[in-house]
Amino acid sequence: MKANSSKETCRICGGIVRQWFDFGPQPISNAFLRHTEVADEIRYDLVVGICGDCTMVQQQNECPRDRMFRPDYPYRASGSVMMRKHFEQVAETFLMTELAGPDPFIVEIGSNDGVMLRTIRTAGVRHLGVDPSVDAVEVAAAEGVRVRVDFFEESSATSIRAAEGPADVIYSANTISHIAYIDSILRGVATLLAPSGVFVFEDRYLGDIVEHSCFDQLYDEHFYLFAVRSVQAMVARFGLELVDVEHLAVHGGSIRYTVTLAGARTPSTAVRDMLEQERKQGLAEMETYERFAERITAIRHDLRTLLERLRSEGRRVVGYGATSKSATVTSYCGIGPNLVPFVCDSTPEKQGRLSPGSRIPVRPQEAFSDPYPDYALLFAWNHAEEIMAKEREFSEQGGRWILYVPTVHVV
């Protein structure tokens, strides 16, 4: 089954989007399949381009949001120790700064299992998460977090403001870039935000993706790849202003953007500095993406060649981390159970199912050491340090890790 809604004009400014890479048919990255669902799997053409006017990198085909973010959406933000600590720090920072006034109110877009809002709830601060995934919301609610089962957009933001009043903070992590209809999101932010409030969101950074050849960050949910320049232009169209940026190490490189109503605060020098850095990196130039495309093609060749050689030598390779981004790797590189017989993952909601597109079975974490394979293909490379420390015994017994970012290599 195929789901496409092609668009050659920019979703942000209406400019012409120039295609720079076509990954071919791709699955819904978080639709881990039951065996009975294989015949009905949706695929769409993952085509990526860049706007010649506002420079926003974006997909040219849109997947229906209710297909991507289903009630049983399996991702859980608290699954990583590193990310739990990250979100606790985010919450503590807000409590000491933007939420330190009388009766503050924070709204989180895409609150998932409530990992950030738990700290806010413990502090007794008014809060509301907005998330369409019923299963994730139930996890958050069990921890006492207030969550609304809904998509955040202009209409829901208007409803929230009427019921709760304006928000001092609107926060979102790894969600805003997922939403093709971003005009409604930003109108909703402008509606809900208090006059002196802040909209803070984190997302994978285009500069890091290009520099480190992280091509697997391109999948259905990452509809946009944000850069400081394109975000600045985008928010300005909705009466908002980018006033600060902070580079983060999470997810292989992210930016935390701070946005206010236009004129509410003076932009920091960090915005100017990042804009200059992007100019030097050539993030607005088509030639930069043409070179990136060449590197993507080389990675596909090298990874398949390595896996085929290991198979011919009788080596056993399994996958580690049934991530969203692994769907792009396996589908684009043509990796199936013949090369990687299964992938281990700690998320119960994914176990016993088949990986999207590739149909590689997902097994519990315990399968990794029963017995250890010769090689592990690390799809969750952005958590490499945490994972390798956890699986030290695998390496001590001679196991090797295969990574493909920034190039194919074995450690």
Automatic annotation (TrEMBL):
Describe the location of the Methyltransferase putative zinc binding domain by residue ranges. 10-69
Q: Where is the C-methyltransferase domain?
A: 250-406
- InterPro entries linked: Methyltransf_Zn-bd_dom_put (IPR013630), Methyltransf_Zn-bd_dom_put_sf (IPR038576), MeTrfase_14 (IPR013691), SAM-dependent_MTases_sf (IPR029063)
Top-level taxon of the source organism: Bacteria
Supply the Gene3D superfamilies for this chain.
Answer: 6.10.250.3100, Methyltransferase, zinc-binding domain, NAD(P)-binding Rossmann-like Domain, Vaccinia Virus protein VP39
PANTHER family on file:
BLL5978 PROTEIN, TRANS-ACONITATE 2-METHYLTRANSFERASE-RELATED
Name this polypeptide is given: Methylation protein EvaC
